[in-house]
């Protein structure tokens, strides 16, 4: 089995190095296939509220090559190729939390069911401070969606019964302050830790095929889990690796002083 850690590797190669039925929990934020080769200068639209410190506020819709696919068909084929392997690596008691694009929730659920997953819920992150619309003529995009699935149907997956049933949403702002990185689609650490507390135990192994800024690796470490994380984009990998190393170093130092 591949060693625990954070790897600069295409997950389609990395997953093949993981043994069957060895992963306890999967948490990942897949590419959304929504990038566009365009930017918008918001200062031209509303200079008074959007101009800050003499710098233009530019919205960049190009997240990176990792979020471009030739077609929706190519995107769905990619998702199926990855998650067939993910399914193989999961224990029968394993759960998966998979952030997905709003427009493709149903299609991706169908793919997961076809692979063999049991799709249980669609969870929602309601953002209290969403990015405003450019022309202010419609609704702001204030929600993100996460599919909760298990490898087995029925009550066969691990569930922290002491926490009981859970509501299927979080009402929280987008990442801010020291937690914020340059990653364009970063997820909140406290939401990730809430998922882990519900569906994993200390000593378990977490898998993240699309590690990005390292949120799920940090959440795993903070809660006593081991992790295997893959990130193909070299620049994003360096960002995530730096964050994970900083967080784990702080934890190690605290533990040392405490003892």
Instruction: Indicate the overall shape.
Output: globular
Percent range of helical residues: 25-40%
Write out the strand line-up for the largest beta sheet, numbering strands in chain order: 1-10-9-2-5-7-6-8
Portion of residues in beta strands equals 15-25%
| Biggest β-sheet strands, sense, barrel | 8 strands, mixed
Q: What value does the average pLDDT take?
A: 86
Number of helices: 7
Cα-atom Rg, whole angstroms? 19 Å
Instruction: Determine the structural class based on helices, strands and strand pairing.
Output: alpha/beta
Unreliable stretches covering 5 or more consecutive residues: 48-54, 253-259
User: Strand-and-helix sequence, N→C?
Assistant: EHEEHEHEHEEEHEHEH
Separation of termini?
Answer: 32 Å
Number of strands: 10
Structural write-up:
With 259 residues, this protein is of the alpha/beta class. 31% of the residues lie in helices and 22% in strands. It has an eight-stranded mixed sheet with strand order 1-10-9-2-5-7-6-8. Strands 3-4 form a two-stranded antiparallel sheet. The chain is globular, with a radius of gyration of 19 Å.
Concise account of the structure shown:
This protein has helices at residues 11-14, 47-50, 72-89, 105-115, 189-199, 215-222, 234-258; strands spanning 5-7, 23-29, 39-41, 58-60, 90-100, 118-127, 143-150, 169-172, 205-208, 226-230.
Summary tags:
259 residues; alpha/beta; eight-stranded mixed β-sheet; two-stranded antiparallel ribbon; 7 helices; 10 strands; 31% helix; globular; disordered C terminus
């Amino acid at each position: 089995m591949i060693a625990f850690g954070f790897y600069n590797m295409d997950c389609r190669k990395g997953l093949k190095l993981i043994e069957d039925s060895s992963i306890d929990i999967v948490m990942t934020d897949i590419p959304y296939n929504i990038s566009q080769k365009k930017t918008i200068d918001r200062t031209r639209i509303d200079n008074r509220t959007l101009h800050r410190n003499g710098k233009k506020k530019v919205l960049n819709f190009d997240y990176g090559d990792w979020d471009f696919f030739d077609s929706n068909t190519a995107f769905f084929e990619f998702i199926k190729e990855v998650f067939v392997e993910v399914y193989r690596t999961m224990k029968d008691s394993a759960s998966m939390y998979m952030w997905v694009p709003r427009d493709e929730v149903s299609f991706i659920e169908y793919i997961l069911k076809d692979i063999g997953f049991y799709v249980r819920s669609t969870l929602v992150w309601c953002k209290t401070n969403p990015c405003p619309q450019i022309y202010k003529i419609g609704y702001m995009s204030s929600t993100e969606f996460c599919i909760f699935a298990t490898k087995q149907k029925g009550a066969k997956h691990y569930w922290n019964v002491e926490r009981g049933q859970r509501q299927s949403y979080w009402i929280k702002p987008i990442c801010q302050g020291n937690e914020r990185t340059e990653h364009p689609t970063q997820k909140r650490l406290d939401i990730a830790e809430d998922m882990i507390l519900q569906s994993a135990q200390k000593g378990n192994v977490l898998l993240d095929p699309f590690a990005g800024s390292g949120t799920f690796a940090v959440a795993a470490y903070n809660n006593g889990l081991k992790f295997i994380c893959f990130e193909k984009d070299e620049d994003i990998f360096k960002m995530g690796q730096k964050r994970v190393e900083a967080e784990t170093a702080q934890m190690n130092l605290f533990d040392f002083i405490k003892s």
